[in-house]
Amino acid sequence: MTTKANSPVTAGSIVVPYGHVVGNEKWRGSEIAQKLQGKVRLIFEDGLGLVDFHLSNRTCILLISEADLVAGDEFKRRLVKFRNTSSLRGIVIVEKTQISDQYYLGVQKLVVLELGMVLLPVANQGEASQLIIQLVREQSRDRTNPFLGKQRTQLAEAAVLQAAQHIPGVGKTKALLLLQRFGSIHRLCNATLNELEQVVGHTVAQQIYTFLHS
């Protein structure tokens, strides 16, 4: 069940039952672990590599702390390595505080626009634990009610729409047009300047293209 330290966790290497969370040993004794105890069945494993917490249904959490954001680009390399080497569904939880707020837009661009992963901001480890508990409970409910899964998809699309609006020159209307035309952030990022111009015109298309490829 354990993997080589600092290596990515690949699909099939770990199976987590519904209602359980497998946590990286480095979080033992932390605030987030203490708040998870008693709310979910938390098990610690050494050597989970890039992943901080494993949930059921091939979902895992990568937690970016305030200290990670301030320290430099190491967290970016971790996210890119995970995206390139794992087929698991990664959810990125980032501590957005007064100190780290200045880095948030850059993280949002990397996680949502470039890597196509879900990004969830929290104020502290306490909020992060509540978010993980909510995800675990939602997974258990989704097993018996497929409609809830559709609701989750709608929430994810709303998050992507919000992220697209942070692109210079793009408001809600243009963001909707872009997502209707290209269908996903990945396709939007790979669009040519000419394809963008057909949707939003030359000036805004140039701003979008520059932002996505800078």
TrEMBL record:
InterPro entries: DisA/LigA_HHH, FAAP24, PND, RuvA_2-like
An example Gene Ontology biological process: interstrand cross-link repair
GO cellular component: Fanconi anaemia nuclear complex
One Pfam family of this chain: PND
Keyword DNA-binding part of the UniProt annotation: no
Domain DisA/LigA helix-hairpin-helix motif, first and last residues per copy: 167-213
Fanconi anemia core complex-associated protein 24 pseudonuclease domain: residues covered: 15-136
Gene3D superfamilies: 3.40.50.10130, 5' to 3' exonuclease, C-terminal subdomain
GO molecular function: chromatin binding
SUPFAM superfamilies per record: RuvA domain 2-like
Keywords (A to Z) from UniProt: DNA damage, DNA repair
Transmembrane residue ranges: none
Name of this protein: FA core complex associated protein 24
Organism: Cyanistes caeruleus
Encoding gene per record: FAAP24
